[in-house]
């Protein structure tokens, strides 16, 4: 079956089961070997990459839809997922499907709800489905050309993540269970795209009182073995909910 | 014409011109006489109040739709308007229209995009349209019972406003052009729902460097005439864009 024939077949089913005109796009962040990465996929018969996405079943809660879409794409459950913005410009997606008939589900106008996800890199098995030829991680500093307005959606997700560092903790879901202080600092530096002073970083992050210093060190390096930390899950959750920095 | 007959007539038109299943709900904040207020309306043949809202034309940008809806309801142009969350639970709105036929536009499932607006109280003329019997301001601390999930939508808007105080300035659009420091402090206190220390507030707000101290005082009170301030629009806009409190 050609890709076009496949889409026409899927269109009939889509009209039956999904809400029309509404899509979900997911910006999935993972952290690996000191780099922040994003999950991208390549559609069949297209030269450019895109964010994983999907549609909302007619009788499905929005958040459950986003979870379902991501689980199918990553194999990971228990993903930290947050809606961050709606993309509602006219003509943002139709052109990508201009070879389809006008009544195709996919060629309609779509208003897309953006979710960002923070996942444990090691738990994700990117899935190539019947509509894509590739699915994998890309360093956020070396993104390929993205389809439609997906670069804009990605930029807004990263901007949201940056702003949230002011009043929410980050790291759980992105770092392994045990990590060193330099690894946590590196994560902040990469999201903020700037170097941080080591002493200031330590002082601020310890003041947040969300870390547990473990009775272990990271062995094997050339230098003095660095201390290992993990997040205090109760305090971390409370800080996510109530905010870290009540400056007023 | 009965209300039901009116809605059935409007339904036919709505299917033609609007995107189905998608609505906009607006939480419009105004500040007046030391109180934060929200604009509510009362639907015909309903005992409860609701947020002003509407639908998106098939070929209309999302933000333009929100502006159009608010302009029709308030008469105000140049409103500060911001999307803040999508409300996508199933069965959140259908029951309010259970007396309509199943094919009514209004009785479908709606995913609603929440916008909050900050408006100059004195510039708004609440409009009672053909579907409502009342439209006016209510003190946020004395809200009537709200329809559907509108209390939840309101709560989320207020929560967003509170969080944004950490990294965005507020006051422009809500205060008159010239205001006193106690008036600005009162606005912060009402949004945060707590008393602030006067000295701390002055020091923090002045450090933001967004105010211009005018060469005038507020005359007429019993006490020493307080100094008047206005916002430095350039600096205020820059702070809105870049954030106030880059703690990292």
Feature tags:
WH-like_DNA-bd_sf (chains A, B), 9 strands, Arc Repressor Mutant, subunit A, NUDIX domain-containing protein (chains A, B), 6 helices, WHD_NrtR (chains A, B), elongated, Nucleoside Triphosphate Pyrophosphohydrolase, 248 residues, seven-stranded mixed sheet, WH_DNA-bd_sf (chains A, B), homodimer, alpha+beta
Give structural notes.
2 copies of one chain form a homodimer. Chain A has 2 domains: 3-166, Nucleoside Triphosphate Pyrophosphohydrolase, CATH 3.90.79; 176-242, Orthogonal Bundle (Arc Repressor Mutant, subunit A). Chain A is 31% helix and 27% strand. Chain A has 6 helices and 9 strands, in the order αββββαβββαααββα. In chain A, strands 1, 2, 3, 4, 5, 6 and 7 form a 7-stranded mixed β-sheet that branches. In chain A, strands 8-9 form a two-stranded antiparallel sheet. Chain A is elongated and about 65 Å long. The A-B interface holds A 19-22, 56, 58-63, 65, 83, 85-86, 88-90, 109, 111, 113, 163, 165-167, 188, 192, 196, 201, 204, 243, 245-248 and B 19-22, 56, 58-63, 65, 83, 85-90, 109, 111, 113, 163, 165-167, 188, 192, 196, 201, 204, 243, 245-248. Chains A, B: This is NUDIX domain-containing protein. Chains A, B: It comes from Gaetbulibacter aestuarii. Chains A, B: Residues 19-162 form the Nudix hydrolase domain.
């Amino acid at each position: 079956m050609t890709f076009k024939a496949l889409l026409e077949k899927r269109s009939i089913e889509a009209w039956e089961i999904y809400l029309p005109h509404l899509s979900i796009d997911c910006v999935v962040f993972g952290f690996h070997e000191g780099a922040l990465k994003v999950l991208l996929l390549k559609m069949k018969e297209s030269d450019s990459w895109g964010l994983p996405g999907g549609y909302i079943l007619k009788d499905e809660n929005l958040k459950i839809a986003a979870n379902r879409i991501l689980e199918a794409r990553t194999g990971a459950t228990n993903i930290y997922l947050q809606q961050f913005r709606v993309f509602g410009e006219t003509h943002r997606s139709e052109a990508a499907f201009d070879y389809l008939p006008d009544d195709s589900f996919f060629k309609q106008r779509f208003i897309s709800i953006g979710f960002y996800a923070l996942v444990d890199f090691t738990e994700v098995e990117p899935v190539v489905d019947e509509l894509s030829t590739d699915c994998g991680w890309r360093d956020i500093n070396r993104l390929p050309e993205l389809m439609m307005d997906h670069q804009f959606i990605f930029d807004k997700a990263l901007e949201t993540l940056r702003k949230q560092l002011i009043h929410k903790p980050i790291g759980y879901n992105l770092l392994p269970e045990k990590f060193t202080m330099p690894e946590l600092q590196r994560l902040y530096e990469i999201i903020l795209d700037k170097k941080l002073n080591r002493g200031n970083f330590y002082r601020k992050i310890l003041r947040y009182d969300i870390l547990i210093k473990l009775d272990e060190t990271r062995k094997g390096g050339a230098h003095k073995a660095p201390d290992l930390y993990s997040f205090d899950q109760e305090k971390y959750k409370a800080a996510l909910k109530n905010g870290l920095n009540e400056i007023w």
